[in-house]
Design goal:
There is one protein chain. With about 180 residues, the protein is of the alpha+beta class. It contains two helices and nine strands; from the N terminus they run αβββββββββα. Strands 1, 3, 6, 7 and 9 form a five-stranded antiparallel beta sheet that branches. The model has no long low-confidence stretch (mean pLDDT about 80).
Amino acid sequence: MNKIWMVLLLVLNVSIINASTARATIFTDIKDLDKIGFGLIGSGTLKWQHNTPDGFKIPPDTVNSAALDIFLKGWNVGADPLYVEGVKVGDVPNFLKINIFGSAKEFNFNIAPVFSPTWGGGMLDIALNYSCLDLIYLDKSKFTLDYTKAVPEPGTFVLLGFGLVAVAFVTRRRTLRQ
């Protein structure tokens, strides 16, 4: 009978620990922007924002990867810088996509370095600076965040306490029977 109780306690402990283990979560926010940057006579900035998950904060949460995909049409004469939260994450290279009615050209940026402990949280501010002779139509923007939610420390201590109580209970029962 003692072996059955030991096995049941072990299964209970393992199932409780697995239920509280941190798991990766993927969050996606897509914005249909329809913004035009017309730099034939000068330069300018296209600005927009993306949502972040509710309760997401660095630390305790951990970023596994973060990407920003922007979809553009028109033409770009020079390499135009893209900023996320004031940090330059790359340049939109020269491109020519004149068919405004066709599909947009996709550009991918790794923005994981933006999420440092100094990041303030909330909405992500994004800015694309365009230069002279550019005609950019910003169709849409997609933000994808793969992160791991931290396991609360009090839960870990409660699980450890349950395990220790179970071991003490079984040990006590064994000594009383002898």
